[in-house]
Design brief:
This protein is α/β, with parallel strands linked by helices and about 200 residues long. It has a single domain, classed as Alpha-Beta Complex (Spore Coat Polysaccharide Biosynthesis Protein SpsA, Chain A), CATH 3.90.550. The chain contains 7 helices and 9 strands, in the order βββαβαβαβαββααβα. A 7-stranded mixed sheet has the order 5-4-1-6-8-7-9, sandwiched between helices. A two-stranded antiparallel sheet has the order 2-3. The longest helix has 13 residues.
Length: about 200
């Protein structure tokens, strides 16, 4: 019986237009958002970790330690998130049965949440595994290798959730804590979280 190796693909190549700055390096809890994502992936039971960067790449590499993560550069990052997904999937090692596609701006997502997905996937590696809150699928998603072509066909700013929506073979893992899914889109949302954590 094979182990069904998994790669975590951390998407951190975007231009952060709504944020208005280098969102990947914005600090929360004393570390950059992208570092929180890379740490969660590195500490998980995933076999490989890929960090997809594009905009502000040299700045990001200067400021964070990759640990066991491998860097992948997306030269087409300006065309939207789909290009980062395609870039990450193209670099997933051949021995992998699936890949977790995760974003770099969910600071409350932890390795234990990724491990839940991995454990569930290993029971049936043909199924998409997705975390959800109140039944609504959210990021991250774990996509089986057989569905990588669907990810490679994504266009523009369409993410992996589009593949989830179109599939019937999905295992949904309910997470009661909505904070896990909080993403930092604007400087105001970051400020709100920083203020909360100080109180």
């Amino acid at each position: 019986m094979t182990k069904n190796s998994i790669t975590c693909v951390v998407l951190a190549a975007g231009s952060s237009v709504r944020f208005g700055g280098t969102k990947q390096l914005a600090q929360l809890h004393g570390k950059p958002l992208v570092k929180s994502a890379v740490d969660a992936a590195n500490e998980s039971t995933a076999d490989y970790v890929l960090l997809v960067i594009g905009n502000h790449s040299s700045e990001i590499l200067e400021k964070i330690e990759l640990g066991r993560a491998q860097m992948v550069y997306n030269r087409d990052f300006e065309t939207g998130i789909s290009s980062s997904i395609r870039c990450g999937i193209a670099n997933v090692p051949d021995d992998c049965s699936g890949a977790i596609v995760m974003v770099a701006d969910q600071p409350f997502l932890e390795s234990k949440h990724l491990d839940l997905m991995i454990a569930e996937f290993r029971k049936d590696p043909t199924k998409i595994v997705v975390l959800a809150h109140k039944g609504e699928p959210r990021n991250p998603v774990l996509i089986p290798k057989a569905m990588f072509p669907d990810l490679e066909n994504l266009k523009d700013d369409v993410g992996a959730k589009d593949v989830v929506r179109k599939s019937r073979n999905v295992k949904v893992l309910e997470i009661p804590d909505s904070r896990v899914f909080l993403d930092v889109d604007t400087k105001d949302s970051l400020l709100e979280l920083q203020t909360e954590s100080e109180n």
